[in-house]
Design brief:
Blueprint (H helix, E strand, L loop, with lengths): L1 H40 L3 H4 L11 E3 L5 E5 L23 E3 L6 E3 L9 E3 L5 E4 L13 E3 L4 E5 L12 E3 L4 E4 L13 E3 L4 E5 L12 E3 L8 E3 L14 E3 L6 E2 L13 E3 L4 E5 L12 E3 L4 E3 L14 E3 L21 E3 L6 E3 L12 E3 L4 E3 L3 E2 L3 H7 L6 E2 L7 H7 L8 E5 L2 E4 L2
Parallel strand pairs: 2-3, 3-5, 4-6, 5-7, 6-8, 7-9, 8-10, 9-11, 10-12, 11-13, 12-14, 13-15, 15-17, 16-18, 17-19, 18-20, 19-21, 21-22, 22-24, 23-25
Antiparallel strand pairs: 1-2, 26-27, 28-29
Length: about 425
């Protein structure tokens, strides 16, 4: 009996040793294959002379077993080569791949593996469609494919990526509609689909992305041509700080539910076809620094509640059909630097409260129906010296008086010229 037990122990030891030996051999061959994949790409040819150890090459991260778990060459080298030349199938343990701005071209490999962080942005010559294998990366948390030449639709399979926090597909040639499956990405904090060729409406499912802080569906014609109204579900995105929808074909009114977005610092819905009044609820967005509602078909008067936006530095409502007078509450916006109200139907007197806005550098009230006494206000350069008022003079139509333009620009000194075009030059008074 003792003899038999001894034999069993020996067999177990031999089998265990054989398994360990096989594992060690496989492990070593994977390390060699990974090193060969890096070496054969030619992207690290300058590193090889310094050290044969691939784990010490630029942008390479290895674990203790010398397996490559990360590559980050972001803007550190220009390879100007096909993406496919890097054999990703030999890098099965890759956790992050960051190849932003290094000049790779061709198509995105369908052998991405199991990465959690993928950044191929700003290569400009990367083309083809988004491979459907992207939808199998169930551990992916960060995806940036922006500013390339990708075309085709946004994958329906993107809904399988349940844990991404960052998704940027901007600056491509993606077409079709925004898939409703995007509503499954409930952990997203950043979503940018701008500068594409998207059509259709904004899906109501966007309202499920309650962790979003940044949402950009802009730019634009002839790029994005999103239609329909801004969904009222936008009001559920209470963590938003940046909302950017300009240069589409959105219609209807600005939803009253926008009042819930109290963390917004930037709101731009310009260059659309929005109608009806500016909702007075916008006055609840007290963290706003920039508000742009320009070039729509908005009607009604400027709500006095805008005076609550005391952190605003830029307010642009130009080229709408706004009527009524300029509310005196505008004087509460003491941080205002840019104010554009031109090309509306605004009437009444220019409020004296504008003189309180000491930081104002750009003001355009022209092409309205303003009236009242001609009011002289000092140019900014003089106001600094004399503690004067603002920086310009308005006539009855809201335009600067010519003789005072001469004064404010010091006889059209080149220092005040901010742009030139086929119809002349533009000066800042």
């Amino acid at each position: 009996m003792e003899c038999m037990l001894s034999s069993i122990v020996v067999v177990v030891v031999v089998v265990t040793y054989a398994a360990a030996s096989t594992h060690s051999s496989t492990d070593h061959s994977q390390v060699v294959a990974a090193a060969d994949a890096l070496r054969n790409s030619g992207w690290w040819k300058w590193e090889e002379g310094a050290t044969p150890n691939h784990c010490n090459w630029r942008g390479i991260t290895c674990n203790e077993a010398k397996h490559v778990i990360g590559i980050n060459l972001s803007h550190s080298v220009s390879v100007y080569d096909q993406f496919s030349i890097l054999n990703l199938s030999s890098l099965p343990g890759l956790d992050f791949l960051i190849l932003s701005g290094i000049g790779i071209s061709g198509t995105i490999s369908d052998q991405i593996g199991t990465v959690t962080h993928l950044d191929l942005s700003k290569n400009y010559e990367l083309t083809g469609s988004i491979p459907h294998q992207i939808g199998t990366l169930t551990k992916l948390t960060y995806l940036d494919l922006s500013f390339n030449q990708l075309f085709g639709g946004i994958l329906d399979q993107i809904g399988s990526l349940t844990i991404p926090t960052y998704l940027n597909l901007a600056g491509n040639k993606l077409s079709g509609s925004i898939p409703h499956q995007i509503g499954s990405l409930t952990k997203l904090t950043y979503l940018d689909l701008s500068f594409n060729q998207l059509i259709g409406s904004i899906p109501n499912q966007i309202g499920t992305l309650t962790n979003l802080t940044h949402l950009d569906l802009s730019f634009n014609q002839p790029f994005n041509q999103l239609t329909g109204s801004i969904p009222h579900q936008i009001g559920t995105l209470t963590n938003l700080t940046h909302l950017n929808f300009p240069c589409n074909e959105l219609s209807g009114s600005i939803p009253h539910q926008i009042r819930s977005l109290t963390k917004l610092t930037y709101l731009n819905v310009s260059y659309n076809q929005l109608t009806r009044c500016i909702p007075h609820e916008i006055g609840t967005l007290r963290e706003l620094n920039s508000l742009d509602l320009s070039i729509n078909s908005l009607t009604g008067s400027i709500p006095s509640s805008l005076g609550c936006l005391t952190k605003l530095t830029s307010l642009n409502i130009r080229r709408n059909q706004i009527n009524g007078s300029i509310p005196p509450e505008i004087g509460y916006m003491k941080d205002l630097v840019h104010l554009n109200l031109d090309y509306n139907l605004i009437n009444g007197e220019i409020p004296s409260q504008l003189k309180i806005l000491k930081r104002l550098e750009w003001l355009d009230l022209s092409n309205n129906r303003l009236s009242g006494k001609k009011r002289k206000v000092q140019p900014k350069s003089m106001a600094t010296k004399k503690n004067g008022d603002l920086f310009s003079i308005w006539n009855f139509d809201g335009k600067l008086a010519f003789e005072d333009i001469i004064l404010a620009t010091e006889d059209f000194d080149i220092r005040y010229c901010i742009g030139s075009g086929g119809y002349g030059s533009v000066y800042r008074a």
